[in-house]
Amino acid sequence: MASDTDMAVTPTPTPASTRTPTGAGRNLLTDNPGLYEARFPDAGRLAGRWAEDCLRRHDAGRRVLDMGCGTGRDAAHLHHAGRRVTGADLSEAMLTHARAHHPGPAYVRADLHRFDLGQGAFDAVVCLDSTLLYCHTDDQLDGFLSSCRRALTPGGLLIAEMRNGAYFLGRGDLLDAPAADEFTWRGTVHRSTTTLTVDRTAQLLRRTRVWTTDDGAGPVEQRSAWRLLFPGEVRRLLAAHGFELLELHDGPGPRTEPPWHEGLLPGRTTDADRLHVLARVVGDRPTA
Ligand SMILES: C[S@@+](CC[C@H](N)C(=O)[O-])C[C@H]1O[C@@H](n2cnc3c(N)ncnc32)[C@H](O)[C@@H]1O
């Protein structure tokens, strides 16, 4: 299952064997979407099923934008569930992979910090696996929400799933200590060492991840960051941008433990690692 990968976007796919050792500006997972799916498998399409469940529970129309669609697997799941889906991402490598491996949706390049894919063009925007947290600054958050507001029809839904800034309060055990991981892709062992630090001034969770492989390539260091977004901020931001908050909770969801499954209803707390946000554009919904 995908979980908050290093996702600084780069324009050109780079095979593992030709990666630059410094990793400057490059991103192993964004550049290699196949590796991303191998590293974070979601064979049961849990994230897509959860998103579809949210759409159904709130009676959303067919037109869905998956912002930060990554490899396209959630967008394709929603397409197969009968939605008319557009997947948008900034990474050309991800979009190329999505078109080839998860056909059905339209795939377009767009920046979540500010985008215009047509006024009222969608009945719902979904933004999964902490993609929203690549809005690091208040201006970027405002840009994202005003773009969603413009993209959505009156009564349209915003569905987001991401890490919870509040979870890191008082959790020094999660910070400043390298965590090791290892997996095999196409016969090559990939090892990563990940260190999280809190940048209190910027209100960011910064991550340094060093990749090594057993194919002779040098180590690749990648840095990325998520906005530390707190539940109270989410409430205030949504209200300021003309959204009515329908649900804000820490699970169950596609990346919680235990995970969501069909029939489970949203919780009421906002304490744990993941935040799930459902909000509706204020305004009358058009009659069919
Ligand atoms: C953690 S992945 C999540 C992908 C997918 N939503 C999923 O759940 O599997 C984050 C995605 O956001 C994309 N991304 C990062 N910054 C972006 C930006 N400014 N605009 C659009 N997409 C962006 C990355 O290319 C990547 O595909």
From TrEMBL:
The record's region (Disordered) falls at 1-30
* Top-level lineage group: Bacteria
Keywords, in A-Z order: Methyltransferase, S-adenosyl-L-methionine, Transferase
Boundaries of every Methyltransferase domain copy:
64-156
Q: Matching InterPro entries, A to Z?
A: Methyltransf_25 (IPR041698), SAM-dependent_MTases_sf (IPR029063)
What CDD domains does the record tag this protein with?
AdoMet_MTases
For this protein, the record's PANTHER family field holds: METHYLTRANSFERASE, UBIQUINONE BIOSYNTHESIS O-METHYLTRANSFERASE, MITOCHONDRIAL
Which protein, by its recorded name, is this? Methyltransferase domain-containing protein
* High-level lineage: Bacteria, Bacillati, Actinomycetota, Actinomycetes, Kitasatosporales
